[in-house]
Amino acid sequence: MFSISQSYPTFDIQSIVIYLCISVSTSIVMEIKGTLDLKKELSDISQCPASYVVAVNDTMNILSGKWKLPIIASLRFGKRRFKELGREIPKITPRMLSKELRDLEVNGLVRRTVYNTVPVTVEYELEESGKAFDKVLEVMIEWGLKHREFTLQREKPAEF
Amino acid sequence: MFSISQSYPTFDIQSIVIYLCISVSTSIVMEIKGTLDLKKELSDISQCPASYVVAVNDTMNILSGKWKLPIIASLRFGKRRFKELGREIPKITPRMLSKELRDLEVNGLVRRTVYNTVPVTVEYELEESGKAFDKVLEVMIEWGLKHREFTLQREKPAEF
DNA sequence: CAGAATCCGGAGCGATACTG
DNA sequence: CAGTATCGCTCCGGATTCTG
């Protein structure tokens, strides 16, 4: 629906990598997050390569944690209540479900709605960003399939 | 360069999610990996939705670990020796560098070449899959930027 | 129903020292 | 140079119990 080159003309995968080296060690990322004015950061977002680091870091935060993906996956089918999620996601405990849902909520991927019923009803659903996360999943699948295909070809050359 | 719909016509993000629920809990994935004949798996790869789970799991294995991304990032610039990587990636210890490099090697992302010099010289470089991983990074960046943009707009609506 | 509180074991990672 | 070996800690996540 929209191409990378259109939206972010200065996108250059080459330029990010050096920043990535220092990114995941969380020092610089935290610095940027903490001290920078958010509005200013937004205005620079398509120019500054450092923003790429933050972007990757953001994505990694979503990916981190054992249950984030299953939860997002489950919510893709539509609104879910706490217990429903617990049933749909095998082996997850209420503690983990609660924690991961809160993470996703503060990160703006999931919207939490409380209804004044007795007892209380709580519904979770994906925000725009949560739905857009499909794109990341798609590429992960695509790469994973390709990678497997490639690896199998290389590892069994003498079989034929 | 190639679109998902072309390469994997049966690709359906909807069908994967239910599988994803059980994927990251590693039970089914391990089952598939261990018991299935690899050749058979390869032939089914564009049909079986379970392969999506494995694919995502593969990608997650790459993403896991604090130093995998920095290492890949560093290797994108070309061949590197052990010590060079150690210098380019801040704060990484030889122990972790060694461990993560071996992980990447057995997963087929990095090729390790030993030269018969005195003392020994070892060079690391990205395999095809490693280079192709750019695509994943790109989308992560794209999503991260969009996500930030979207989140900032939502959180500061009354400012104007 | 929708969680919070507490306890606890293991994996992941760091620091340091050593080796072919 | 290119790693390995050992120790120790932190924190993620599981199990269980309790609450508004």
TrEMBL record, chains A, B:
<keyword id="KW-0804">Transcription</keyword>
<dbReference type="Pfam" id="PF01638">
    <property type="entry name" value="HxlR"/>
</dbReference>
<dbReference type="InterPro" id="IPR036388">
    <property type="entry name" value="WH-like_DNA-bd_sf"/>
</dbReference>
<feature type="domain" description="HTH hxlR-type">
    <location>
        <begin position="48"/>
        <end position="152"/>
    </location>
</feature>
<dbReference type="GO" id="GO:0003677">
    <property type="term" value="F:DNA binding"/>
</dbReference>
<dbReference type="InterPro" id="IPR036390">
    <property type="entry name" value="WH_DNA-bd_sf"/>
</dbReference>
<protein>
    <submittedName>
        <fullName>DNA-binding transcriptional regulator, HxlR family</fullName>
    </submittedName>
</protein>
<keyword id="KW-0805">Transcription regulation</keyword>
<dbReference type="InterPro" id="IPR002577">
    <property type="entry name" value="HTH_HxlR"/>
</dbReference>
<keyword id="KW-0238">DNA-binding</keyword>
